[in-house]
Amino acid sequence: MNLRLLSLFVLLALAPFVRAHEDQLAGEMTVAAQHFLAVLTPEQKAKAQFQLTDEERKNWHFIPRVRKGLPIKEMNQGQRLLAQALLTTGLSPQGYGKALGIMSLEDVLAELEKGKGPIRDPENYFFSIFGEPDAKQPWGWRVEGHHLSLNFAAAGGDLAATPSFLGTNPGEVKEGPRAGTRFLASEEEFGRAFVKSLSEEERKRAIILAEAPKDVVNAPGRHDWTKPDGVQQKTLSPEQRAALVHLIHLYLDRHRSEIATDEWTKIEKAGLGNIYFAWAGGLEPGQPHYYRVQGPTFVLEYDNTQNNANHVHTLWRSTENDFGDDLLKRHYEQSHTAAAAAFTVEETPERITLRGSALEASIKKTGYVSGVESKSFLDKKTGARDLGFGLDIQDWIMEPGSDEAYRDQLPGDLPYQFNNKYHGATAKRSIEGPQICTKARELHPHIIQGKDFTAIEQSWNYTIAAPGKQTGSEWKQTLVFPAGQRYFISSDRILSRNDGEKLFFRQDMPGHIKHKGGDTFSEVYLSYRGKIPAKEFVEDFAPDEKFNYRRDRDGVPQRMIRAYHTRDPQTGADGPWLAGMTLNPSDTSEAWCHQRTGYVCLIQEVGERPVKAGESFGAAYIVGWFDSIEEMEKVYDQYRGNSALEVTTDGWKLVPSKP
User: Fold this and answer.
1) Can you name the residues that pair with 289 across neighbouring β-strands?
2) What is the pLDDT of residue 572?
3) Strand-pair partners of 457
């Protein structure tokens, strides 16, 4: 074999072992998280997955305490394997070994404490996913339990891996079959060796306290970083500088080489001469001691003071990029530039029109108002438009029961006729009105533009009420259009002026379907019923005659999705689905899907629970275009469990349902 061919053979043989670049690792991490989420039950997923903006993402600690997330002990064997696979995308082999070793020490503590301390359980470590794992969009994940907190963030191929905490108790197992076990031995020994290598003068500068602090100083909740202190790298000998580099790498190299290499590049760029080493406490084994290595971009800490200096805490934090704050900021700045180009906003006296890279939509200010204007919701991918009178359209505040006893006293459009094809046989009555979409006549929507979204907020106060009821309950609607998405997020809420045992509001969700014999759509999908072909909607039928859902009769479904499959009236070719999805399915009390003359009516009612005057109730939704039911379900599961939507120029967030 000639030399050239041999070289090629060697390269091919080594190729599987060559580390990918960081953006490739981000992709690997994303896929691992997707695989993990895919095997969870809905109940497990509700525990494991949070919004990226959820405060829980930064609620980290290393002490024994109640935690959110999905613990290992609640996973089956297959789920555990995929959780472990995710962990290996963040840690190097040695880091992975340290992490599992730390978990295993819970058994040692259980033996030592004989049930006198906190519950010790090596399976009481929690996996949490923040946001939706995506190769381009920001998201994060965490593995945490006693003496272990590993926090990762990813955005556009970039990664962050701090805060990163590893601790051991005992630092060294003193007796039993595991006697001599020390999972963080190198961190102690190389730190001590380094301080002992210093000259007397250098050591005077390095030792900042005679007594070691009781714990790491840059602990959870601290954001005013310690000031660099001790001996400065640029004053050291070449051998000492090399030893300090080795000590730093002990912490970085717990993580995948792509992460460690990227972090080391940042450290070098900030200047190795600006790194300081500080020591506190005794210099001999068994004496309480502490050290800190700090540079412009990072801080490392080691503390061994508790349990007779046999209880180790180690920490790596980024002074700029904990939880990926810096990379998320850069991502959002880049997204803001893209969003500015992707969304143009045109406002006239009649409407606000948004034109984006993925969709267009208009919000009427006069005439038929609330929600998204009829036929304005354009899917840029396929050219499809909505088929009804608008999307997320608002009606009255109502309650069960008949108004027949006082119907002649009701003002405006409050009288409610039943026992007909329009409303069915169920007795209901209006509490406040009028119907917003047809009678409000004019709204004053407010535009909010953020880094990667455009939002619309609008509100209105009801002006008429049933006898004995107050007017003035406030309806508030929020519509958020994320850049690059084919859907919008919305919320409708009522701040009630009245008490009621079963108050609800009525709305079109997603919206009606105008058609002639099923020419504009091929089927309807109701998550609580399945697919229904268009031929079922030729003759008129009442809301409660078929395809009706009631929470008190049917129970709460796994998802509340109502969608129609568009088709070209000329060619008969199917287009995309248009779906309306109520993110907390229990918020929907009743949902209709029935045929009226000329259109399929997709109405739902929200609430039907006790409400006191001054309280609010409502729901949150996703409304948009999808290529399949599976895609709808994936997006639904990303946002499920929320009932409200909040937005400022800094961002938007969905608010979880109250128990």
Assistant:
1) 281, 304
2) 94
3) 446, 478
Q: Are 647 and 448 in contact (CB under 8 A)?
A: yes
Q: Are strands 549-550 and 588-591 parallel, antiparallel or unpaired?
A: antiparallel
Q: And the tokens for 15?
A: 């190729």
Using the Cα atoms of residue 112, residue 113, residue 115 and residue 119 in order, give the sign of their dihedral: negative
Give the residue-averaged pLDDT of 264-291.
97
Contacts of 305 (CB under 8 A, 6+ apart): 212, 213, 214, 215, 281, 288, 289, 290, 311
CB-CB contact of 561 with 509 (8 Å)? no
Classify residue 244 by its DSSP letter: H
Q: Which two tokens stand for residue 330?
A: 């850069």
CB 166 within 8 A of CB 304: no
The overall pTM is greater than 0.85: no
Distance CA 99, CA 165 (A): 10
**Strands 560-567 and 521-526, bridge-based pairing:** antiparallel
Could you give the CA distance from residue 642 to residue 655 in angstroms, rounded to a whole number? Answer: 5
Contacts of 261 (CB under 8 A, 6+ apart): 22
Asked if the model's pLDDT at residue 92 lies above 70, the reply is: yes
Residue-wise DSSP of 311-343: -EEEEEEETTTGGGHHHHHHHHHHHHHHHHHH-
Rounded CA-CA distance 257/272 in Å is 20
Q: Which residue has the higher pLDDT, 120 or 337?
A: 120
Both tokens of 244, joined, read: 């300090």
Category of 388 on φ-ψ map: left (φ > 0), alpha (ψ -120 to 50) or beta: beta
**In the structure, what pLDDT confidence band is assigned to residue 330 with cuts at 50, 70 and 90?**
confident
pLDDT tens digit sequence for 530-551: 999 999 999 999 999 999 999 9
The reported pLDDT for the residue numbered 115 is: 84
Among 291, 320, 66, 124, which Cα is nearest to 196's? 291
| pLDDT at residue number 42 | 87
Q: What is the mean pLDDT of the chain?
A: 93
Query: How many DSSP H helices and E strands does the chain contain?
Result: 14, 40
Buried b (16+ CB within 10 A) or exposed e, 354-387: bebebbbbbbbbeebbbbbbbebbbbeeeebbbb
